[in-house]
Amino acid sequence: MYTTEFLDIPHLASAGGSVQLPGSKSISNRVLLLAALSQGTTTVHDLLDSDDTRVMLDALHALGCGVEPRQVVPGAPLRITGLGGKLPAGAAATLFLGNAGTAMRPLTAALAVLGGDFEMTGIARMYERPIGDLVDALRQLGCRIDYLGSTGYPPLKIAPPDFSNFPDVPIQVRGDVSSQFLTSLLMALPLLAQERAITIEVVGELISKPYIHITLELLARFGIRVVNHDWQRFVIPAGSRYQSPGEIHVEADASSASYFIALGAIAAGADGQKGIRIEGVGLDSIQGDIRFVDAARAMGADISGGPNWLQVQRGSWPLKAIDLDCNHIPDAAMTLAVMALYADGTTTLRNIASWRVKETDRIAAMAAEARKLGAQVEEGADFIRITPPADASAWRAASIHTYDDHRIAMCFSLAAFNPAWLPVRIQDPKCVGKTFPDYFETLFTLVQPSAAAPVICIDGPTASGKGTVATLVAQRLGFALLDSGALYRITGLAASRAGIPLEEAQAERIAALIGTLDIVFTPDQRVLLGGEDISLAIRTEEAGMNASRVSAFPAVRQALLQLQRDFRRLPGLVADGRDMGTTIFPDAPLKVFLSASVECRAQRRFKQLIDKGLSANMHDLLADLQARDARDTQRSASPLQPAEDALHWDNSAERTVEQAVQQVLAWWQQRQPFASA
Ligand code: DC
Asked: Ligand 1 in contact with 470 (CB < 6 A)?
C-alpha cells in the first residue's frame, strides 16, 4: 500500500494481463458477523484484509469470539468461533469501528438485541453517517440505544434490552437512506426468532436491493431462510437458528472489479495481450455490482465471462455516452462517471442519492474532481451529468483530492489514460486501504506508461549522503529505489568469494559471474545473495574498496547496465550512484549531484559504520575516501562526474538531510504540471 502524501501516476498508454481481486468487503464483514453469531467454528477463505474487516475482527475478538489467526494472513483461511447466539452475562465493551458502516450498523443491531453495555465509536466521518432509522426500528422491539453525540448519528451507547413489550406487528424500517439498516435487522433478528416468526416491513422505496440480495444469500448459507415478499416484507421463520456452514469462500469484490473492467474498456491492448482477465468473480456473482458489466457493455466495453472470471477489452472507442438509472449499482456507478470522461457525449447517472451519505458526499466529490480534469459537470440531489473535455487541449493535469474515500482514489487513477498525455496526482493514496490496499500496485502490474517511467538520479561521491537522500525521496514519492553502489559491492563480494582476483585481466570472468547471481533487494532494505542476507557484509570498508576496484572494469559496468535499467518501473524510480545521470538513465527528467568535502564525508561514513556496529578509524577512512575518489574520478569507464544537466547540492555537514530531501522534492515538483501540492 502506498502511504505517501500523494501518488503521481504517469500518463498511461495501454494495459493487459491478468488480475486476482481481493475478497468483497460487503461479503467479508457479513460473513464475519454471521460466523460470530453462529454456534461452532467457521473457516473463512479469501477474506478481504482491509481497514473495515480489521475493525470488525477487533470488535468480534473484544466480544469474546475466537479469531484465529488474529489477522488476515494472505492465502490462509481464518477461523471464527461463534458466540452461539448469546453473550456472557454482563458483557461490556467500547468498540472502535473506524469509518466502517458495514461494521457499525450490523454490530449495533446485533449487540442491542444480544444485550450488554457497549459504546460504539469511530472516526469523525462516521459521526456524520446516519443511523437513526436503524435505532428507531430497534427501539420498537425494546432495544435501548442512546446517542452520545448528535441525535441520529454515532457514537452510540447500548444498554441491555427490555423485550417485555415485544410487538406482534411487523417491525418497520426505512429503506430509502441506507440498505444497511435492513441488512442489520435481517442479521440481528434471527436471534429473536426461535419461538416466533418476525416480520420486517420496509417503509419507503428500498434502495440498493442488490446488497439485500447478498444478505439473504449469506443468511441462507448460515441456516436462516428469510422469505422475501417483493422487497417490501421479509419474514424470518419461527425456529430460525444460526448454524455455521463449516467452510465458506468470500467472492472477490465486484465493485473492485469495476476498475479493471473500466481499464479493459478504456486502455488500448498491450502487445500480444487480449485485454484484462479478472479472476475471483464472474458473471454468476451474488453481488449486485456485477451488473456493472451491463452498463460497461452499454458504454462499449467488450466483456466475456464464466463462473469465476471476466475478460474485458476495448470495444467501441471512444466509449458511448449513456443515460442510466444506477440505483442497482450505487458503488460501481462511480466508475461509470470516470468512463464518461472518455465518451462521445454527455453521460447522465441517475437515482444515486445514496452517494451523498457514503464515505463522503460522492456526488459533490466526483463533480469537483472531474471538473479539475476539464470535464463539464452538472450535479443534482440524485444525479450527476458529465460532459468530457472537448478535446485533448481541454484536459488539465489535476491533483485529485480523495476525501478519505477509496472509490474516488481508484476511479480517478483511470484518468491517466487521457488523450493529453498528462499525469494524474492522487492525494492520500492510502485511502484505498478500506477495500483494496494493493490497488495501485495491482494497477501498475497491468499498465504501460506512454513514456518510460520517470527517474530521479542522485549521483555523487561516496559518503556524500546520496543513499540516505535517495531513500527518503523514494519513500516520499512512493518510487522504487536503485542503490547501484550495492550492485558493485555485491559483485566485489561475489568475485572475492569465488576466489577471482579483482584484476583487470579477470574482468570478463567477473562480468560473466554477474549473470549467475541471484540478487534480491527486500522491501525492508535488506540485500540477499542466493538467499543469504549480505546487507552487512557489503557495507564494510573492504567491500567498498573491492566495489571501487571492480567498478573500474568496463566489462563489469556493461554487465550491470541492463540490470540497473530494469529497476525502472511505475510510478517511478530514484536511482543513486555515480553514473545514473550520465550513463544509465541519460533521459532522466531530474538529475541531482550531491557533493561534500572529503572531511565531512569521512565523518559521515565514520558515524554510519559505528551505527552499524562495524569498526572504524577516522585516519584510515580519510585515506580510503581519497583513494576511492581518485579511482572513481580518474577511471576511463564512466568516471564520477556530474551530468551536464545535473542540479548541484552541497550536502555538507551544516545542512540537514531533510533540507536536501526538500530541495530534491521541490525540484521534482517544478517539473510536474500540477499546481504546487
Ligand atoms: O555508493 P557506494 O559507496 O556503495 O559504491 C561503491 C563503489 O561502487 C564506489 O566506490 C564506486 C562504485 N560505483 C560506481 O562505479 N557506479 C555506481 N553507479 C555506483 C557505485
From this structure: no
Tens-place pLDDT, residues 178-217: 889 999 999 999 999 999 999 999 998 888 788 899 999 9
- Same domain for 382 and 265, yes or no, is yes
Whether 241 and 265 map to the same domain: the answer is no
Q: How far apart are CA 71 and CA 62, in angstroms?
A: 14
* Residue that terminates a domain, selected from 393, 415, 449: 449
Verify whether ligand 1 is closer than 6 Å to residue 546 (CB atom): no
Given 405, 423, 449, the domain boundary residue is 449
For residues 205 and 267, state if they share a domain: no
pLDDT at residue 513 in the model: 97
Atom 4 of ligand 1, residue of closest alpha carbon = 485
**What is the DSSP secondary-structure string of 161-175?**
--GGG--SSPEEEE-
Determine the 3-state secondary structure of 566 from DSSP: coil
Given the CA of residue 632, which atom of ligand 1 is nearest to it? Answer: 11
In this structure, the answer to whether residues 652 and 599 fall within a common structural domain is yes
Q: Residue 425: which of 392, 454, 385, 384 has the closest Cα?
A: 454
Q: How far is the CA of 482 from the centre of ligand 1 (A)?
A: 12
Q: Which of 46, 49, 58, 331 is catalytic?
A: 331
- For ligand 1, is residue 544 a contact (CB within 6 Å)? yes
Residue nearest to atom 10 of ligand 1 (CA): 548
* Co-location of 467 and 422 in the same domain: no
Residue 297 identity (one-letter amino acid): R
The answer to whether residues 646 and 455 touch, using CB atoms and an 8 Å cutoff, is no
pLDDT (0 to 100) of residue 170: 95
| 675 within domain boundaries | no
**How confident is the model over 104-126, as pLDDT tens digits?**
999 999 999 999 999 999 999 99
- Asked if 482 and 576 count as a contact pair (C-beta separation under 8 A), the reply is yes
Give yes or no: residues 277 and 216 share one domain: no
Residue 472 lies in a domain: yes
230 by Cβ neighbours in 10 Å (0-12 / 13-18 / 19+) ranks as: exposed
**3-state DSSP percent of the chain in helix, strand and coil, to 5:** 40, 20, 40
Would you say residue 676 has pLDDT above 80?
no
Question: Residue 544 Cα, ligand 1 centroid: separation in angstroms?
Answer: 8
88 & 184 share domain: yes
What's 450-518 look like in SS3? CCCCCEEEEECCCCCCHHHHHHHHHHHHCCEEEEHHHHHHHHHHHHHHCCCCCCHHHHHHHHHHHCCCC
By residue range, what is the domain housing residue 537?
455-670
Number of domains making up the chain? 3
Identify the bridge partners of residue 6 per DSSP, sorted by sequence position.
Answer: 427
Which of these, 468, 486, 484, lies nearest to 476 by C-alpha position?
A: 468
Please say if 294 is a catalytic residue. Answer: no
Q: What is the H or E stretch that residue 141 is in? A: helix 132-141
Element (H, E) at 188: helix 179-188
Q: At 494, which CATH number?
A: 3.40.50.300
Residue 560 vs residues 321, 397, 510: alpha-carbon distances, Å? 50, 36, 11
**Could you tell me if residue 676 is inside a domain?**
no
Q: Enter the pTM of the model.
A: 0.83
20-36 b/e (C-beta count within 10 Å ≥ 16 → b):
ebbbbbbbbbbbbbbbb
623-638 pLDDT, tens per residue? 989 988 888 888 888 7
Assess whether the C-beta atom of 577 lies below 6 angstroms from ligand 1: yes
* Whether residue 235 is found in the same domain as residue 319: no
Q: For residue 92, what is the domain's CATH number?
A: 3.65.10.10
Cβ of 551 closer than 6 Å to ligand 1, yes or no, is yes
